[in-house]
Amino acid sequence: MIFSSVLAEHAPGYAEMGERMEELARQQPGFLGVESVRGADRHGITVSYWETRQDAARWKQVGEHLAAQAKGREEWYVEWRVRVCRVEEEWGTRAG
Amino acid sequence: MIFSSVLAEHAPGYAEMGERMEELARQQPGFLGVESVRGADRHGITVSYWETRQDAARWKQVGEHLAAQAKGREEWYVEWRVRVCRVEEEWGTRAG
């Protein structure tokens, strides 16, 4: 699941929420890993990896995560986009 | 295509190459878009979007891009990983 976003100039509470969501995601069934980067221009990409598409869908519906999504849409993000993807192939120097 | 990487502390020529590769990618058949973020901790994620998997595979084989990949593996990146994915669903506030 690829989540791209542009943060508002002022996004109070965003950093804490990000850390909390990562901690919470790690506890969900089917969680495989997460990579998250935010640049100086406030653009960010977070990719979370899940065993199955159902696991990813369930994570979207976790109560605390739903609240964070609502707050993100209403306050934190200027733009955002979610893409649900299936990994078909991968290679490189490390496991995700 | 998701490209995750960690840059070496010194990566001379990297920024110029990144710009050039983005410019070159935009000229390839099937190119849909690209999102690229590098954080202060040198972790980066670049996601490029292509019409077909073949278009993405062809981009990997473009000469100047092959040279950049080699230089990346040998000099610029401490870690890197490529994931070829199929976008199955997407939503949000903007087109990628």
Question: How would you briefly describe this protein structure?
Answer:
Two copies of one chain form a homodimer. Chain A is an alpha+beta fold.
Describe it:
- 2 copies of one chain form a homodimer.
- With 96 residues, chain A is α+β, with helices and mostly antiparallel strands.
- Helices cover 36% and strands 40% of the residues of chain A.
- In chain A, strand 2 and strand 3 (43-50) form a beta hairpin.
- The A-B interface holds A 2, 4, 35, 37-40, 43-45, 47, 53, 77, 79-96 and B 2, 4, 35, 37-40, 43-45, 47, 53, 77, 79-96.
Protein traits:
homodimer, 96 residues, alpha+beta, four-stranded antiparallel sheet, 3 helices, 4 strands
Summarize the SSE layout with pairings:
2 copies of one chain form a homodimer.
Chain A lengths: L1 E6 L6 H13 L4 E8 L4 E8 L2 H8 L2 H14 E16 L4
Antiparallel strand pairs in A: 1-3, 1-4, 2-3
Question: Rough shape of chain A?
Answer: globular
Give the number of helices of chain A: 3
State the major sheet of chain A: 4 strands, antiparallel
Count all strands of chain A and give the number.
4
